[in-house]
Amino acid sequence: MVALVGTSVSAADDDPYLWLEEVEGEKALEWVKERNAHSLEILKEDPRFDALMERSLKDYNAQDKIAYGRLLGGSVHNFWQDDKNVRGVWRRTSLKSYKAGEPKWITMLDFDDLAKKEDENWVYKSRKCLAPDFGRCLLELSRGGGDAVVVREFDAVTKRFVEGGFETEEAKQEVVWVDADTVLIGTDFGDGTMTDSGYANQTKVWKRNDPLALATLVHEGNTKDVGSFPFASHRPDGTYVGVVQAPDFFTEVVYILDGEEAAWDQKEMRKLDLPEAISFKGFYGDTVIVQVRKDWVLGTKTVKAGTLVSVKVADALAGRSAYSLSEIFVPTDRSSIDSVQIGKDRIFLSVLDEVTGQLVSAKPGPKGWTITNIGMPENGALSVISADEWTDTAFINFESFLQPDTLYAVELGGKPEQIASLPARFDASDMVTEQKFATSRDGTKVPYFVIRHKDVKMDGTTPTILYGYGGFEIALAPTYLSGPGKLWLEEGGAYVIANIRGGGEFGPKWHQAALKENRQRAYDDFIAVGEDLIKTGFTSPRHLGIRGGSNGGLLMGVMTTQRPDLWNAVICAVPLLDMMRFNKLLAGASWMGEYGNPDVPEEREYILKYSPYQNLDADKDYPEVFFYTSTKDDRVHPGHARKMAAKMLGMDKPVLYYENIEGGHSAAANLKQRAFTDALQVVYALKKLKD
User: Fold this and answer.
1) Helix (H) or strand (E) holding 626
2) Catalytic entry in 550, 590, 611, 666
3) Pair 471, 594: CB distance under 8 Å
């Protein structure tokens, strides 16, 4: 871990900005560390810090938390971390014992033991196990928690890595099973095989016992794409293997390997007749399931943006999708599909209606798809944790801001059955949740949730943290508060979540309203919520702080430079900040579909208007900003935070800075590191907004 920057720093000598244009920000980080190495203690020595960290870590390590599992052919697989399993353990049990609340866990792999044995900083990322017996798995391991992984074949029966099995070098890559002796792989095959965004551009069929160099090329995209990502769908009703080529973050071209009698490496990769503005969800029987991101016009019929549809694969291959297109679910103007999971005999849809959840299932019939409301609790968030494509069982989670998670099992023909419930982590008896609306600059009504204590006085003194994201069609639904949000409520503060444009709360149009040249709308929405909190007397700029990470970190940077008068604290995590160069760093080029391309003059012009790094002004007063990031973040480069902190310090502006040496884009590789950053954030907010 590197130092936390203090606030009593004089301006840099001469011109402090000449070296800041180095995109990685390593010199900026060195400069920050040299001048501020003493001040990590500013927050750590606060008398509240240790207790806050201990409370947070106690929640993370609790033995009574729900062991969320993934269903695989009737078994339940779980990844578990606590104080004894710091890196975690992968384990398995039967569905029967899991539902009974007394799972008899069988350990598959202990990642603490593995890291110690191999002397590697392994962080578990994911696994893919081959149906129908799920005995062979492709395990993804990261060094330090970044997106780049190594892939190794694991035998789930013997609980050992397969000697001489499939194994790859570290890369940002995707490897999926074709059959027991064949995989489809997109990885770094050498010069020119990766996109500008840092993802695989080539996909190959790789046979067991062959060196990777002999794998057969079956697909090549464009280096300007986000990437090409292999997939495999193995279901009782059929197998489809192919590639999703993503020209940008919000368009997809779906291909499948086709050729009935040919060997896999002799099959042809054929394109499906679908629009590019879609989100591919998978296969059900002989149909492909996609969600439409923009209106799809088919002759006299228009499929509304946000709609989930099915198309027979044979028709999509023949260029006649209109013949068999069927609408599964059509959202209203105030609802959206939050997630889709495909089960064995039905499709599960988590739907947001006015930003609260419903759960429905869809089954095909002679007259199209039949929608059934599964009958889950209301006024919260519903998510499908896992749907088994081989048994039609699904795990559903319900939660709200003040109501702990409850896990249900749903089996075909049965009602939801509660199987686990998270004990309350804080006393919510004196707390309430309200949904309110602010009016943005262009007149749009922007919803936001307020979680507060019942006795709040509307005199502008309530210590308040306002959280936002507003990007990539991601919706912020009501979820049980944990980490810094939970600690903040316990310390007497109020927590507010803004559902600004750019998110997915009301479907693709809500997201697209804030794309590229219209990005300022998301920022206007957030400002409107902050102003509404102040205008109504709920809080005041002295007691109002803001928090966000990643794209939300960009939001924090914009709020710092555009409206520094509205906030007294800014928590800016793993952020994008130098928007003139974001597309040159790591996965940045993949986000040009969201922000635009700063190398195109007309797009550069509108990006420059809000880019936080370029809009810093030495003559303005700014709230003290708390930046935190990770050296191992290989998605959003830590150079963004490094350069912004250094430039602000050079202007003699107050800054706090913390960089974890591991953790990837989450900035935490384990539960203890997560609790540490929780405590840092809450102590900082208490000092700025309450003390």
Assistant:
1) strand 625-630
2) 550
3) yes
- Which position has the token pair 């795990």? 395
* Contact (CB, 8 A) for 503 and 649: no
pLDDT digits (tens, 9 = 90+) for 394-415: 999 999 999 999 999 999 878 8
Known catalytic residue: 550?
A: yes
Cβ–Cβ under 8 Å, residues 136 and 155:
yes
91 burial (CB, 10 Å; 0-12 / 13-18 / 19+) is buried
> Is 177:136 a contact under the CB 8 Å cutoff?
yes
Backbone angles phi, psi at 166, to 5 degrees: -65, 130
Angle subtended at Cα 415 by Cα 286 and Cα 90, rounded to the nearest 5 degrees: 70
Give CA–CA dist 628/573, Å, rounded.
Answer: 5
Residue 200 DSSP symbol: B
Residue indicated by tokens 């928590």:
571
d(CA 524, CA 518): 10
**Mean local confidence (pLDDT), 521-534:** 98
pLDDT for 39: 64
Tell me how far apart the alpha carbons of residues 608 and 517 are, in angstroms, rounded to a whole number: 11
The residues that bridge with 154 in the sheet, in sequence order, are 137, 161
Q: What are the structure tokens assigned to 477, written together?
A: 């639904």
543 is catalytic: no
What is the tens place of the pLDDT at every residue in 582-622? 999 999 999 999 999 999 999 999 999 999 999 999 999 99
- Burial of residue 318 (CB within 10 Å: 0-12, 13-18, 19+) is exposed
The tokens describing 484, both together, are 């810094």
* pTM confidence score: 0.93
| Active-site residue identified among 543, 637, 640, 665 | 665
Q: What is the pLDDT of residues 93-148, one digit of tens each?
A: 999 999 999 999 999 999 999 999 999 999 999 999 999 999 999 999 999 999 99
